[in-house]
Design brief:
Length: 372
C-alpha cells in the first residue's frame, strides 16, 4: 500500500496488532502487518525470554513493544512493599473482595501457598514508571522497531534514546489534547483510541474521535483503534484520515491467543453489552469482559475502586488468584472491546489478516462503484 506507516516500517499492510502473546506478534508480522507485544503483565525475566523467542521466530520482520507509563498513579511502592496487601490496601476493600468470593463459594488459596501465589501473580503487573523503565532497558537489548506508551506521553529521555537507535515511538490518545501532547513529546505517530476498544480507553466513539485527532496533529500519521476487527472497519479508519489500524481484541479469538479456553468460551457467548467500561480491574477506565466481579462494583454499597495501580493489585492479588485457580466461570474476565459480540469461533491470526485485507478490497470496490 502507498502508506506512510507501511513505508516507515517496511511492512505490507498497515495493521498493527497489540497482544500479550508472542505467537500473535510473530504471526501478524509474518502476515505483513506489525505485531506489538504488551509488557505490562510480565516479569523482567519473562520479558527477555519472550523477546528472544520472537527474535528467533519472526524471520527479521519488524515488531514492537507496548508499555504502561502513566502520568498519574498512586505510588504503591516497588519490590517487597508491593506484595504486602494488608499493608498496602484498605481493609474495607480487602474485605469486599474476599467476602464476594467467599459468598460465591470460590475457595480461598491454600494457606501454605497463598503468599507465594499472590506474589507470583502481582509481580507480573508492571505499572509504575520505574517498572516500565526496567522493561524498556530489557527491550532495548533486542531489535525492536517500535515503542508504544499506552498511558500518557513518553518521557523525552525515552524518545531521544529510541530515536538514537532508529526505533519509532508512539502513544495512545483518547482526546485531541492528549494527541497534541504526544506530538509535542516527539512521537512519530499517534494511536487514536475510541471507546469501543478493549483495555484502557476514553468515552468518545471512534467515528467521532479519529478525524478529530487526525486534524489536531496533522501531518503526523494516526492509527485508528477501537472497534476494528474486519476490513470494512479498517476502510472506515482510512476514510476518516487514519493511516491504518491498531487492533487488539480480534486476536483473542485466534488459536495463537494467550487467553484460556474458559475465557475464550465466555467471549464467544458474549453480547454487545458484555464489554463494559469499568475501573474495577485496574483503577483506570478499562473495557473488559463483564463478570460477577465487575458487576459487584456497580452494586449499591460497593466501595469506590482504588486509584491505579492499587485496584489492579487488589484484583490480581486477591481476586484473580482465587478465580483462575478453580476457573470460576462467572468471575472470569479479560480486557476486550465491543467487537467481542462479533467473535463467535476460533480462527488463526493469518486468517484474520487475510479476511481483513480481502474485505478492505471489497469495500474499496464498492466505494469506487458508488462514487463513479
Amino acid at each position: 500500500m502507498a502508506n506512510r506507516l507501511c513505508e516507515m516500517f517496511g511492512i505490507e499492510a498497515p495493521i498493527f496488532a497489540f497482544s500479550h502473546c508472542r505467537d500473535v506478534v510473530v504471526e501478524v508480522s509474518k502476515a505483513g502487518g506489525l505485531g506489538v507485544l504488551g509488557l505490562a503483565r510480565m516479569s523482567p525475566q519473562r520479558v527477555d525470554a519472550e523477546l528472544q523467542w520472537i527474535d528467533d521466530h519472526i524471520g527479521g520482520r519488524p515488531y514492537g513493544v507496548d508499555i504502561l507509563m502513566p502520568t498519574t498513579y498512586q505510588d504503591a511502592g516497588e519490590g517487597e512493599a508491593k506484595y504486602d496487601a494488608d499493608r498496602l490496601l484498605p481493609a474495607g476493600h480487602l474485605a469486599f473482595v474476599r467476602g464476594m468470593l467467599d459468598r460465591a463459594g470460590v475457595p480461598a488459596l491454600p494457606a501454605a501457598e497463598a503468599a507465594q501465589i499472590e506474589r507470583d501473580l502481582v509481580s507480573t503487573f508492571n505499572f509504575t514508571p520505574g517498572e516500565s523503565a526496567a522493561m524498556i532497558e530489557i527491550a532495548l537489548r533486542h531489535p525492536i522497531k517500535l515503542i508504544v506508551n499506552a498511558l500518557g506521553s513518553p518521557p523525552a529521555e525515552l524518545v531521544e534514546r529510541a530515536h538514537a537507535r532508529g526505533i519509532k515511538v508512539a502513544a495512545m490518545a483518547g482526546a485531541p489534547k492528549h494527541a497534541i501532547k504526544h506530538r509535542d513529546a516527539g512521537c512519530d505517530f499517534v494511536i487514536a483510541v475510541g471507546t469501543e476498544a478493549g483495555g484502557h480507553t476514553g468515552s468518545t466513539t471512534s467515528m467521532v474521535l479519529w478525524p478529530r485527532i487526525v486534524d489536531a496533529v496533522a501531518p503526523l500519521p494516526v492509527l485508528g483503534a477501537g472497534g476494528i476487527g474486519r476490513g470494512r472497519q479498517l476502510a472506515a479508519a482510512l476514510a476518516l484520515g487514519c493511516e491504518g489500524a491498531w487492533c487488539g481484541s480480534i486476536w483473542l479469538k485466534t488459536v495463537q491467543s494467550e487467553v484460556t479456553p474458559e475465557v475464550k468460551a465466555r467471549m464467544f457467548e458474549a453480547g454487545p453489552d458484555d464489554a463494559v467500561l469499568t475501573r474495577s480491574v485496574t483503577g483506570k477506565p478499562c473495557r473488559t469482559l463483564r463478570s460477577a466481579f465487575t458487576d459487584a462494583w456497580d452494586a449499591p454499597g460497593a466501595p469506590e475502586p482504588l486509584p491505579a495501580p492499587l485496584q489492579a493489585i487488589l484484583w490480581w492479588g486477591q481476586g484473580r488468584t482465587r478465580v483462575e485457580r478453580v476457573r470460576a466461570k462467572e468471575f472470569l474476565t479479560y480486557p476486550v472491546g465491543q467487537i467481542v459480540a462479533d467473535m463467535r469461533e476460533e480462527t488463526s491470526v493469518r486468517q484474520v489478516v487475510q479476511d481483513m485485507l480481502g474485505e478492505l478490497s471489497e469495500a474499496k470496490e464498492r466505494l469506487d462503484r458508488l462514487l463513479g
